[in-house]
Amino acid sequence: MPSLEELISKAKLLQSEGHSPAQIADELCLSTETVTWLLTQPKGGEIPKDVHIDWTTVSTYAPLLSDLAMMMLKRFLYNAEGAGGESLLPETEIPDAVVGIDLSGVPLATIVAVEEGLKLAIYHPAKYSRGATPIGSLSANFSGVAGQRVIIIDDAITTGGTLHEVVQYLKQHGAAPLAIWVIFDKRGIREVDGVPVHSLFRISRL
Which of 80, 92, 109, 185 is the most exposed place for a label (fewest CB within 10 A)? Predict the structure, then answer.
């Protein structure tokens, strides 16, 4: 696990390369509040309570990343199986598309979409917007979501804010979010605006 000094150095390096605090937060799997503290370290300021996750030993190798995406898919399918192994998913719960949240959710969503023959949509969170009024958006180069039953995929839940944003966006644009899949849940969140969360790992502070 990196020391605090190493995290500060990484955050400042990313900042020097032009990354915004929100982008740095995604890169380091930290909250924006924690990244702001790392970059400024105000005197007398209390260190935010957060958990850093470094999963680069998996994410830098495509075969391992594929295995992880398959674990996410199998966890969802196992939950929907009966005692005899048959799927208990009603027709209305079978997804048409996956929505990968930029940045780390995109490769995971792509792998799942290929495996299941689903459409692929990509969501750019509002925190990446450079407009005067930041808003989230879907990439026009990939699938739309109107009338689609969708699975939302990201790497981690840090505060839950981005997932709330994407769920609301999808509903407003005619999609039916069925579930949220993440690798790491740092908040113990069971659902976001009525959409169930399926995580591979739930992190608890003792």
Answer: 92
